[in-house]
Design goal:
There is one protein chain. The protein is mainly beta. It has a single domain, classed as Thrombin, subunit H (Beta Barrel), CATH 2.40.10.120. It has helices at residues 43-52, 136-139, 251-256, 324-331; strands at residues 9-10, 16-17, 63-68, 78-86, 89-92, 112-116, 125-134, 152-156, 179-184, 203-208, 211-220, 223-233, 280-285, 288-298, 314-319. Strands 1, 2, 9, 10, 11, 12, 13, 14 and 15 form a nine-stranded antiparallel β-sheet that branches. The longest helix is centred in the first third of the chain and has 10 residues, at 43-52. The chain binds calcium ion (2 copies). One calcium ion is lined by residues 207-208, 232-235, 269. One calcium ion (CA) binds at residues 233, 235, 242, 244-245, 261-263.
Length: 332
């Protein structure tokens, strides 16, 4: 295992993409009081929900880990998350495999491994990848979160038959104020109490949907691609820091638009961290938990003195329903 401390990669807009990159520096100094999880909870509480397979909750088994290199070598130094949406297709974020500010071309498939199970250190199965399909306008230069095109479809070399794929949310009926779940393999290895030499286990977080944005669009050649965003904030238990409940403080929040947000934390309230990129945001549609968002990044400096993934963090997702047509056109 060669996990190095990751860092946030800044992109052209001030919203950053969550990314797991090679970096020898410790980021202990960046820890706030609540790195990704409530200060009064343990990471094990969040991991237990992912492993429990409760039928009343989303199908967390379909959430997979990627380990990969950017140059196609077998030395995987990056981690990311994704969701099985068809037996041979995984939906994730484009920036995991192609960030034009860092690379000349997307990561070769031969350097990508898919890990199944709750613990990527001891995966129950591994799969290789035959193809990655990056959103056309992301691939051709519009690598800015506000284009809402941070999406990538990963085709497996062979189908996964042991896991039921997750249903995509296609109806744009995501309900502001509703409970949502996120799941991913974000890197907590440097957090207090964790083994710094191991990859972090699959974990969930619970939150409330605070924002939805639509009407974004990009064009490649003559094709127009619609896009949208979803977002939530990381509230503290007593409701002192409500990042999306106050005034719009910067351009990032401006793109998410005006609105309200509940103050105070839900039971497993959390934020997203590096390595969670590409992981799913689930919304409940009737009785079915559907994949509604793909983790892209977070708003920069949402509250004064903010440290990454601490209370006040704002997580931003590329919306699935607004890109449903493109996704279906690839995996059909
Ligand atoms: Ca919240
Ligand atoms: Ca809030």
């Amino acid at each position: 295992m060669n996990i190095k401390a990751p860092f946030y990669c800044l992109l052209f807009a001030s919203i950053f993409l969550l990314y797991s990159c090679q970096d020898d520096e410790s980021f202990d100094d960046d820890f706030g009081v609540a790195f990704g999880i409530r200060q009064d909870k343990n990471l094990a509480d969040y991991e237990a929900v992912a492993a429990a397979n409760n039928p009343a909750l989303p199908n967390f088994k379909a959430v997979i880990a990627f380990s990969y290199s950017l140059d196609g070598s077998a030395k995987a130094e990056y981690i990311a998350s994704g969701t099985l949406i068809a037996p041979q297709w995984i939906l994730t974020a484009a920036h995991n495999f192609y960030d034009a500010s860092e690379q000349k071309k997307p990561a070769p498939v031969k350097g990508i491994t898919i890990k199944i199970g709750d613990d990527p250190n001891t995966p129950t199965q591994t799969y290789s990848v035959s193809q990655i399909v990056i959103h056309p306008t992301w691939l051709h230069g519009n690598q800015d979160f506000q284009h809402a095109n941070d999406l990538c479809l990963v085709k497996l070399a062979s189908p996964i038959t042991s896991i039921t794929p997750v249903k995509l949310h296609s109806t744009s009926t995501e309900s502001l104020g509703s409970t949502i779940w996120f799941c991913g393999f974000g890197d907590y290895s440097q957090a207090p109490g964790q083994n710094p030499n191991l990859e972090s286990k699959k974990h969930t977080i619970e939150n409330i949907l605070d924002r939805k944005v639509e009407g974004l669009k990009t064009t490649h050649e003559t094709t127009v691609y619609l896009g949208g965003l979803l977002a939530f904030d990381f509230d503290d238990p007593i409701g002192a820091i409500n990042a999306l409940g106050d005034n719009i403080v910067n351009a990032d929040e401006g793109i998410l638009g005006a609105g309200t947000s509940s103050a105070g934390a839900v039971n497993l309230e959390g934020a997203t961290v590096e390595g969670d990129s590409g992981g799913p945001l689930f919304v409940k549609n009737g009785s079915v938990w559907e994949l509604a968002g793909v983790l892209s990044g977070g708003a920069t400096d949402p509250v004064p003195g903010h440290k990454k993934s601490d209370y006040g963090d704002i997580s931003v997702f590329t919306r699935v329903s607004t890109s449903y047509t493109w996704i279906q056109s690839v995996i059909k």
